[in-house]
Amino acid sequence: MSEQFVRTELLLGTEAIEKLNNSRVIVFGVGGVGGFAVEALARTGVGTIDIVDDDRVSVSNINRQIIATHSTVGQYKVEVMRKRILDINPNCTVNVHQCFYTPETAPNFNFSDYDYVVDAIDTVTGKIELVMRANEAGTPIICSMGAGNKLDPTQFEVTDIYKTSVCPLAKVMRKELKARGIKKLKVVYSKEQPVKPSQDEAIKSKEKPAATPLETRSNTAKRQTPGSTAFVPSVVGLIIASQVVSDLIK
After folding, report:
1. Residue 57 C-beta-side C-alpha neighbours within 13 Å
2. How many CB atoms within 10 Å of residue 240?
3. In the chain, how many domains are there?
4. So what's the pLDDT on residue 173?
5. Is the pLDDT of residue 221 over 60?
6. What's the DSSP call for residue 4?
7. Who's near 10: CB < 8 A, 6+ residues apart?
8. Please, which pLDDT band fits residue 207 given cuts at 50, 70 and 90?
9. Pairing relation of β-strands 93-97 and 48-52?
10. In Å, how far are 98, 101, 145, 214 from 60, measured between CA atoms?
Protein backbone atom coordinates (compact mmCIF):
# COMPACT_ATOMS: atom_id res chain seq x y z
CA MET A 1 0.00 0.00 0.00
CA SER A 2 1.12 3.56 -0.75
CA GLU A 3 3.14 5.30 1.94
CA GLN A 4 0.54 8.06 2.14
CA PHE A 5 -1.93 5.69 3.82
CA VAL A 6 0.54 4.26 6.36
CA ARG A 7 -0.86 6.28 9.28
CA THR A 8 -4.39 5.16 8.45
CA GLU A 9 -3.23 1.56 8.09
CA LEU A 10 -1.79 1.68 11.61
CA LEU A 11 -5.32 2.21 12.93
CA LEU A 12 -7.47 0.26 10.49
CA GLY A 13 -5.14 -2.54 9.41
CA THR A 14 -3.96 -3.76 6.02
CA GLU A 15 -7.14 -5.66 5.19
CA ALA A 16 -9.28 -2.57 5.78
CA ILE A 17 -7.06 -0.45 3.57
CA GLU A 18 -7.42 -3.01 0.78
CA LYS A 19 -11.21 -3.02 1.19
CA LEU A 20 -11.29 0.76 0.88
CA ASN A 21 -9.04 0.69 -2.17
CA ASN A 22 -11.43 -1.77 -3.81
CA SER A 23 -14.56 0.20 -2.88
CA ARG A 24 -16.63 2.55 -5.00
CA VAL A 25 -18.54 5.38 -3.33
CA ILE A 26 -20.82 7.88 -5.02
CA VAL A 27 -21.40 11.30 -3.44
CA PHE A 28 -24.37 13.35 -4.55
CA GLY A 29 -23.64 17.03 -3.94
CA VAL A 30 -20.11 18.36 -3.42
CA GLY A 31 -20.94 21.58 -1.60
CA GLY A 32 -20.37 22.34 2.08
CA VAL A 33 -21.21 18.85 3.36
CA GLY A 34 -20.42 16.70 0.34
CA GLY A 35 -17.12 18.36 -0.43
CA PHE A 36 -15.69 17.56 2.99
CA ALA A 37 -17.07 14.02 2.79
CA VAL A 38 -15.30 13.48 -0.54
CA GLU A 39 -12.10 15.00 0.81
CA ALA A 40 -12.01 12.58 3.74
CA LEU A 41 -12.89 9.57 1.58
CA ALA A 42 -10.08 10.42 -0.83
CA ARG A 43 -7.57 10.89 2.01
CA THR A 44 -8.65 7.57 3.56
CA GLY A 45 -7.94 5.66 0.35
CA VAL A 46 -11.30 4.89 -1.24
CA GLY A 47 -10.31 3.57 -4.67
CA THR A 48 -13.18 4.84 -6.81
CA ILE A 49 -15.22 7.96 -6.13
CA ASP A 50 -18.14 9.23 -8.18
CA ILE A 51 -19.15 12.87 -7.70
CA VAL A 52 -22.46 14.37 -8.78
CA ASP A 53 -23.24 18.10 -8.94
CA ASP A 54 -24.25 20.64 -11.56
CA ASP A 55 -23.28 23.89 -9.85
CA ARG A 56 -20.35 26.22 -10.34
CA VAL A 57 -18.28 27.65 -7.48
CA SER A 58 -19.51 31.07 -6.39
CA VAL A 59 -17.91 33.70 -4.13
CA SER A 60 -20.52 33.05 -1.45
CA ASN A 61 -19.35 29.41 -1.26
CA ILE A 62 -15.91 30.40 0.00
CA ASN A 63 -17.01 30.67 3.64
CA ARG A 64 -17.76 26.92 3.94
CA GLN A 65 -16.92 24.79 0.89
CA ILE A 66 -13.52 23.11 0.72
CA ILE A 67 -13.23 23.48 -3.06
CA ALA A 68 -14.24 27.15 -3.05
CA THR A 69 -11.42 29.68 -3.35
CA HIS A 70 -11.10 32.87 -5.34
CA SER A 71 -9.13 30.93 -7.94
CA THR A 72 -11.94 28.38 -8.47
CA VAL A 73 -14.89 30.79 -8.65
CA GLY A 74 -16.87 30.14 -11.84
CA GLN A 75 -15.59 26.61 -12.33
CA TYR A 76 -17.82 23.56 -12.14
CA LYS A 77 -17.64 22.04 -8.67
CA VAL A 78 -17.23 18.50 -9.94
CA GLU A 79 -14.22 19.48 -12.03
CA VAL A 80 -12.57 21.30 -9.14
CA MET A 81 -13.28 18.33 -6.88
CA ARG A 82 -11.95 15.87 -9.45
CA LYS A 83 -8.63 17.69 -9.68
CA ARG A 84 -8.41 17.88 -5.91
CA ILE A 85 -9.06 14.16 -5.44
CA LEU A 86 -6.40 13.24 -7.98
CA ASP A 87 -3.94 15.62 -6.37
CA ILE A 88 -4.56 13.82 -3.07
CA ASN A 89 -4.49 10.30 -4.55
CA PRO A 90 -3.42 10.01 -8.21
CA ASN A 91 -4.39 6.34 -8.14
CA CYS A 92 -8.01 7.05 -7.33
CA THR A 93 -10.55 6.54 -10.12
CA VAL A 94 -12.81 9.59 -10.28
CA ASN A 95 -16.07 9.53 -12.21
CA VAL A 96 -17.67 12.92 -12.80
CA HIS A 97 -21.40 13.41 -13.30
CA GLN A 98 -22.19 17.04 -14.04
CA CYS A 99 -25.92 17.03 -13.40
CA PHE A 100 -28.60 17.85 -10.86
CA TYR A 101 -30.03 14.67 -9.35
CA THR A 102 -33.80 14.40 -9.79
CA PRO A 103 -36.27 11.60 -10.53
CA GLU A 104 -35.74 12.50 -14.19
CA THR A 105 -31.95 11.99 -14.10
CA ALA A 106 -32.10 9.01 -11.72
CA PRO A 107 -32.09 6.41 -14.54
CA ASN A 108 -28.59 7.61 -15.48
CA PHE A 109 -27.22 5.89 -12.37
CA ASN A 110 -27.01 2.17 -11.66
CA PHE A 111 -26.96 1.96 -7.88
CA SER A 112 -25.82 -1.65 -7.99
CA ASP A 113 -22.45 -0.35 -9.21
CA TYR A 114 -21.69 1.32 -5.88
CA ASP A 115 -20.64 0.03 -2.49
CA TYR A 116 -22.04 3.11 -0.74
CA VAL A 117 -24.16 6.15 -1.52
CA VAL A 118 -23.77 9.54 0.15
CA ASP A 119 -26.68 11.96 -0.03
CA ALA A 120 -25.53 15.55 0.42
CA ILE A 121 -28.09 17.25 -1.82
CA ASP A 122 -30.62 19.91 -0.89
CA THR A 123 -34.04 18.87 -2.13
CA VAL A 124 -36.58 16.47 -0.67
CA THR A 125 -37.56 15.03 -4.05
CA GLY A 126 -33.95 14.21 -4.84
CA LYS A 127 -33.29 12.75 -1.42
CA ILE A 128 -36.34 10.50 -1.54
CA GLU A 129 -35.39 9.28 -5.01
CA LEU A 130 -31.86 8.50 -3.82
CA VAL A 131 -33.15 6.51 -0.86
CA MET A 132 -35.62 4.57 -2.99
CA ARG A 133 -33.05 3.71 -5.66
CA ALA A 134 -30.41 2.69 -3.13
CA ASN A 135 -32.95 0.59 -1.26
CA GLU A 136 -34.01 -1.20 -4.45
CA ALA A 137 -30.37 -1.97 -5.27
CA GLY A 138 -29.54 -3.05 -1.71
CA THR A 139 -26.78 -0.44 -1.54
CA PRO A 140 -26.06 1.28 1.81
CA ILE A 141 -26.87 5.00 1.93
CA ILE A 142 -26.34 7.76 4.46
CA CYS A 143 -28.21 11.07 4.23
CA SER A 144 -27.42 14.53 5.49
CA MET A 145 -30.35 16.33 7.05
CA GLY A 146 -30.55 20.10 7.49
CA ALA A 147 -27.21 21.83 8.22
CA GLY A 148 -28.20 25.36 7.21
CA ASN A 149 -28.86 27.99 9.89
CA LYS A 150 -27.09 25.85 12.52
CA LEU A 151 -24.19 27.03 14.68
CA ASP A 152 -23.29 24.14 17.01
CA PRO A 153 -21.43 21.29 15.28
CA THR A 154 -21.32 19.28 18.50
CA GLN A 155 -25.07 18.64 18.32
CA PHE A 156 -24.93 16.57 15.15
CA GLU A 157 -25.41 12.83 15.58
CA VAL A 158 -25.84 9.66 13.58
CA THR A 159 -29.13 7.85 13.99
CA ASP A 160 -32.04 6.28 12.16
CA ILE A 161 -34.46 8.64 10.43
CA TYR A 162 -37.32 7.39 12.62
CA LYS A 163 -35.43 8.38 15.79
CA THR A 164 -34.98 12.01 14.72
CA SER A 165 -36.75 15.01 16.20
CA VAL A 166 -36.82 18.83 15.92
CA CYS A 167 -35.22 18.94 12.41
CA PRO A 168 -37.89 20.08 9.87
CA LEU A 169 -36.25 18.23 7.00
CA ALA A 170 -36.07 15.00 8.98
CA LYS A 171 -39.77 15.36 9.80
CA VAL A 172 -40.66 15.59 6.12
CA MET A 173 -38.38 12.68 5.26
CA ARG A 174 -39.89 10.50 7.99
CA LYS A 175 -43.37 11.06 6.64
CA GLU A 176 -42.48 10.54 2.99
CA LEU A 177 -40.32 7.46 3.55
CA LYS A 178 -42.85 5.84 5.84
CA ALA A 179 -45.48 6.26 3.15
CA ARG A 180 -43.14 4.50 0.73
CA GLY A 181 -42.44 1.57 3.01
CA ILE A 182 -38.83 2.43 3.90
CA LYS A 183 -38.13 0.83 7.29
CA LYS A 184 -34.81 2.44 8.15
CA LEU A 185 -32.32 5.05 6.97
CA LYS A 186 -29.01 6.18 8.45
CA VAL A 187 -28.87 9.98 8.75
CA VAL A 188 -26.75 12.73 10.26
CA TYR A 189 -28.87 15.42 11.89
CA SER A 190 -29.04 17.95 14.72
CA LYS A 191 -31.67 18.78 17.35
CA GLU A 192 -30.40 22.36 17.45
CA GLN A 193 -33.10 24.91 16.74
CA PRO A 194 -32.16 26.76 13.53
CA VAL A 195 -31.07 30.37 13.83
CA LYS A 196 -33.20 32.84 11.93
CA PRO A 197 -31.00 34.62 9.35
CA SER A 198 -30.92 38.39 9.31
CA GLN A 199 -33.51 39.76 6.91
CA ASP A 200 -31.23 42.65 6.04
CA GLU A 201 -28.36 40.36 5.05
CA ALA A 202 -30.66 38.19 2.97
CA ILE A 203 -31.92 41.22 1.08
CA LYS A 204 -28.38 42.43 0.46
CA SER A 205 -27.27 39.04 -0.82
CA LYS A 206 -26.43 39.09 -4.51
CA GLU A 207 -26.44 35.32 -4.77
CA LYS A 208 -29.48 33.71 -6.33
CA PRO A 209 -30.96 31.54 -3.57
CA ALA A 210 -30.31 27.84 -3.90
CA ALA A 211 -33.03 25.37 -3.06
CA THR A 212 -33.45 24.60 0.63
CA PRO A 213 -34.08 20.99 1.67
CA LEU A 214 -37.82 21.65 1.75
CA GLU A 215 -37.99 23.12 -1.75
CA THR A 216 -37.24 22.37 -5.36
CA ARG A 217 -35.39 24.62 -7.75
CA SER A 218 -38.62 25.76 -9.33
CA ASN A 219 -39.73 27.83 -6.34
CA THR A 220 -36.54 29.31 -4.93
CA ALA A 221 -37.19 32.92 -5.86
CA LYS A 222 -39.44 33.53 -2.83
CA ARG A 223 -37.19 32.06 -0.16
CA GLN A 224 -34.50 33.43 2.07
CA THR A 225 -30.90 32.37 1.65
CA PRO A 226 -29.92 30.10 4.57
CA GLY A 227 -26.99 31.09 6.75
CA SER A 228 -24.00 28.79 7.16
CA THR A 229 -20.51 28.69 8.65
CA ALA A 230 -17.17 27.02 8.02
CA PHE A 231 -17.49 24.72 11.02
CA VAL A 232 -20.95 23.12 10.65
CA PRO A 233 -21.11 21.66 7.09
CA SER A 234 -17.51 20.49 7.38
CA VAL A 235 -18.24 18.52 10.55
CA VAL A 236 -21.32 16.93 9.00
CA GLY A 237 -19.28 15.89 5.96
CA LEU A 238 -16.55 14.36 8.11
CA ILE A 239 -19.09 12.48 10.22
CA ILE A 240 -20.60 11.07 7.05
CA ALA A 241 -17.20 9.99 5.73
CA SER A 242 -16.36 8.27 9.01
CA GLN A 243 -19.60 6.29 8.85
CA VAL A 244 -18.98 5.25 5.26
CA VAL A 245 -15.45 4.07 6.04
CA SER A 246 -16.61 2.22 9.15
CA ASP A 247 -19.32 0.38 7.23
CA LEU A 248 -17.09 -0.44 4.26
CA ILE A 249 -14.40 -2.13 6.36
CA LYS A 250 -16.74 -4.26 8.48
Report:
1. 22
2. 29
3. 1
4. 98
5. no
6. G
7. none
8. low
9. parallel
10. 20, 22, 21, 21
At residue 89, what are phi and psi to the nearest 5 degrees?
-140, 95
Read off φ and ψ for residue 69, nearest 5 degrees. -140, 170
* Count, residues in the chain: 250
Q: What is the DSSP letter of 238?
A: H
Confidence grade of residue 199 (pLDDT, cut at 50, 70, 90): low
Which tens digits make up the pLDDT trace of 69-82? 999 999 999 999 99
| Residue 1 vs residues 10, 46, 92, 94, 246: alpha-carbon distances, Å | 12, 12, 13, 19, 19
- With both helix axes pointing from N to C terminus, report the angle between 233-248 and 32-44 in degrees, rounded to the nearest 10: 40
pLDDT at 212 over 90: no
Please provide residue 134's backbone torsions phi and psi, each rounded to the nearest 5 degrees.
-65, -40
Report, as an integer, the average pLDDT of 23-52. Answer: 98
CATH of the domain at 200: 3.40.50.720
Residues in Cβ contact with 209 at an 8 Å cutoff, skipping those fewer than 6 apart: 220, 221, 223, 224, 225
C-alpha to C-alpha distance for 193 and 207, rounded to whole angstroms = 25
Does 149 score more than 50 pLDDT? yes
Name the residue range of residue 83's domain: 3-248
Is the per-residue pLDDT at 222 higher than 50? no
Cα 166 from Cα 11, distance rounded (Å): 36
